[in-house]
Specification:
- The chain is an alpha+beta fold and 364 residues long.
- The chain is built from four helices and 14 strands.
- It has one domain.
- Strands 1, 2, 3, 4, 5, 6, 7, 8, 9 and 10 form a ten-stranded antiparallel beta sheet that branches.
- About 11% of the residues have low confidence.
């Protein structure tokens, strides 16, 4: 039998300890590189998504505030004639808070009656009074303190604006009782009889002024509900959502189905991540219906000369978003005594957005 002469020379194949350690080291290095790339890509994606969310939030915020600004100061033909003919019985009945002062449809922090707002309110606050054009009613007839209209959703106690097509009458008044969805009572009867003293939309005689009525509303005249809004920044009602843009509204339907026109109004948290708001006001100093310059809140001496509002919003990613803060020298204080931005110490992205909205009812 032949002996296998190659048996003793056969090499043994396998992995040595050194080779194994080198392989493990290379594998760990590759995992670290791939993991780092994944984390970086994830953070970039999260930051991009957060930034896109900020852009969307500011678009919604400006849309809401801008709509209220454009509708503010609307009182029929009074924007042309300079006066409101008729009376303001809504204000006479409900009081003298900012939301009943129809002579000042745009104001800011100096407005009275803004009590019991959420804790932590910061920055400037914008108050606006206008109408809701989506709920208008057309007059069919007006006799003996009962206005006949098309279908409407007005209720007792609502503050309404009546205006004729020929500008002969522009009057704020209060619906004295419920009536029906096609009638608007405004005579001295019903629960709210203390603020309407005759069957015509005339001067409120309870104030000692002339009780001479201006007459009845002609067919085709319009009735619109008055709405007042206050926009401000305060802590979010939800945990880990930072601060939010809030709106306090009067003249919208509450839980009772009737408009809220007294007390604290109706508060609504609109958008999370709105950290601050600063306002500047376009002033018409010479009465030619053009803006001569912008003034900060403390420099506005006559709110009736305001033609536009420049809004600065500080938007941030939410505290629970987990993104990295981006510091920028582009943030600047609007007023040295009222900075909108303080450099952050958290891991959030901050951006300041600016937009200008005209009170179109004052410039037309």
């Amino acid at each position: 039998m032949k002996k296998n002469i190659h048996k003793k020379n056969r090499r043994q194949f396998g992995v040595t300890l050194i080779e194994l350690m080198v392989s493990v080291a290379i594998s760990l290095f590759l995992i670290a590189v791939i993991g780092g790339a994944y984390i970086t890509a994830r953070n970039v994606f999260a930051s991009t998504a957060a930034a896109s969310g900020m852009d969307e939030n500011v678009r919604v915020a400006f849309s809401m505030i801008g709509t209220s600004i454009r509708q503010a100061s609307f009182n029929g033909c009074a924007g042309v004639t300079g006066t409101v003919k008729g009376d303001t019985r809504g204000a006479n009945y409900y009081g003298s808070n900012w939301y009943q002062d129809f002579t000042k449809p745009v104001q800011s922090n100096s407005a009275p009656g803004l009590n019991n707002l959420p804790t932590g309110k910061i920055g400037d606050m914008l108050t606006l009074i206008g109408v809701d054009p989506t709920r208008e009613a057309s007059v069919v007839s007006d006799e003996d303190g009962i206005i006949q209209t098309g279908t409407h959703d007005f209720n007792e106690g609502d503050v309404l604006l009546a205006m004729t097509t020929d500008c002969s009458l522009n009057s704020y008044f209060v619906m004295t009782n419920d009536g029906s969805n096609t009638t608007i009572p405004h005579k001295s009867s019903g629960t709210n009889d203390s603020h309407n003293c005759n069957a015509d939309l005339g001067i409120n005689c309870a104030e000692g002024g002339s009780s001479t009525p201006y007459g009845h509303l002609a067919r085709g005249a319009l009735i619109l509900p008055v709405v007042a809004n206050a926009y401000f920044i305060a802590d979010s009602a939800s945990a880990n959502k930072g601060k939010s843009l809030w709106r306090r509204t009067y003249g919208v339907k509450g839980n009772s189905g009737k408009a809220v026109w007294s007390g604290d109004g109706q508060d609504e948290e609109l958008i999370n991540g709105v950290e601050n708001m600063a306002l500047e006001f376009g002033i018409d100093s010479d009465g030619d219906r053009s803006i001569d310059g912008y003034a900060t809140l403390g420099d506005v001496t006559d709110w009736n000369k305001v033609l536009a509002v420049r809004i600065h919003l500080l938007i941030a990613t939410l505290p629970d978003a987990g993104t990295r803060s981006i510091r920028s020298t582009n943030y600047r204080p609007i007023d040295p005594d009222h900075p909108i931005f303080t450099p952050p110490t958290d891991n959030r992205i901050y951006r300041e957005y600016t937009s200008i909205f005209a009170l179109r009812n004052r410039i037309l």
